[in-house]
Amino acid sequence: MAFVAYSASITALLPFNRIFSGGMGKKWNRLSPGYSARLRAGPSTLSRTSNFSSAAAGKAGGAPPLPQLSEADKTLPIYTWPHKKKPRVCILGGGFGGLYTALRLESLLWPEDKKPQVLLVDQSERFVFKPMLYELLSGEVDEWEIAPRFSELLANTGVEFLQDRVKLLHPFDHWGMNGHKQSSCGGTVLLESGLLIEYDWLVLALGAEAKLDVVPGALEFALTFSTLEDACRVDEKLKTLERTKFGKDSFIRVAVVGCGYSGVELAATISERLQDRGIVQAINVESTICPTAPTGNREAALKVLSSRKVQLLLGYFVRCIQRVSDVEASGDATVIREGKDIAKHNSEKYVLELQPAEKGLESQNLEADLVLWTVGSKPLLPELEPCDKPHELPLNARGQAETDETLRVKGHPRIFALGDSASLRDSTGKLLPATAQVAFQQADFAGWNLWAAINHRPLLPFRFQNLGEMMTLGRNDAAISPSFVDGLTLEGPIGHAARKLAYLIRLPTEEHRFKVGLSWFAKSAVDSVALLQSTLTKVLSGS
């Protein structure tokens, strides 16, 4: 019953109940002639920069006029909104923050003349439920279950979707909330396809990407694990290694750099998949794994990793990554691991040079067939065109937008930021982590605060409610530490079931939740029958 209470609390603690409603909306072409609803490439004549003219200063004591597009920009294809008077909300990024904000806006009750037109822009055609990417490697889930297409999720809503990448952002709202009533444009977004979008309200939820340029060789030889494409690439690499490496003297070696949640979940999942055919080595600069995790989760993870013979190299950082063929070419015959010269192996292998981060440890080199990188990330906020300082978004050192407690970007009342794109601190002054749980809750508040801003109501300050932490540790193993019961950790099959139920509840739409729930139930039934048959076979053969 504990995991049921935990799952229920996810919905109960949010500020407002999410009600997904709305009939089949009519689909129409929003774009100028010659452009489809899924632009991928634009005219080759478009330059990297776009010339935006600056408005002249207004009369003394009066509000300055809003900036106008230059003659050059007027030649760009402009996204055509269906209604001229209704508010235009553009959401950049279709992850947890962006998609769930769009669905939140759709669920709220609006005055007929103020219900916004919502456009969601993302570079991928699919929404990815990232906490369950590991289950693709273990074979527990199918791709459609955790990565449905936006077109399917938004089919019964009024939200429009564009598959494209953001090239340039030019906000106008630094001129103030109020302008001419007939010219309330909050700014423009230029996409890589060349399409220009004018908006009244903007939501920045672009997420983040792995940061590989901090260690020589990482960008060339390491694989990341943060997108659907990453997961498919890792799965294909493992399948190739499983086909080509077999026998006692042909071990598959996987190196996982980083032992935060992502690194530990990867190490546990891959070690279970390889079993006796390979070995997983996990490297972390800290002296422990998951240093910020609850004690129960960390202990459960350590127990699982130990049982699967995962080698933990704690207190080390990776100095560089090289290909074996490059080591051979350099004539470095001293790079040895476990008494074997790695130059004897083929060029598909890699060498990781480890340096100690603590006293008492010695430098060493690791050999790996596959290197997975889970350390560091950088936000994907669009690069702004060089212009006057009032045009710039306030960014912190990591490239995140500084927001107030209502999730509005400071100095830009028509722009909201959340998830990896936002820099927001809790009541103690601590920076909120860039996790799915934070983005879930921010999306509810962002949707509500957009409603409040459009209807001239007070905005709500965002308050993060930590519901606990979860991690997968294999096909039938997980660890959950709910925040509402101190010291409680659900692990093993119970933790696994609780985690899947909690994530089933958090899937984007009721229709998708229903289809996935049926699929998971059917898989569980098949697995149970197979287990029963296996048990009966062993009993009968033993007798």
Automatic annotation (TrEMBL):
Organism superkingdom: Eukaryota
Entry EC no(s): 1.6.5.12
The protein's required cofactors: FAD
Nucleus among keywords: no
GO cellular component: chloroplast
EC main group: oxidoreductase
Record-given protein name: demethylphylloquinone reductase
Species annotation: Gossypium raimondii
Species lineage: Eukaryota, Viridiplantae, Streptophyta, Embryophyta, Tracheophyta
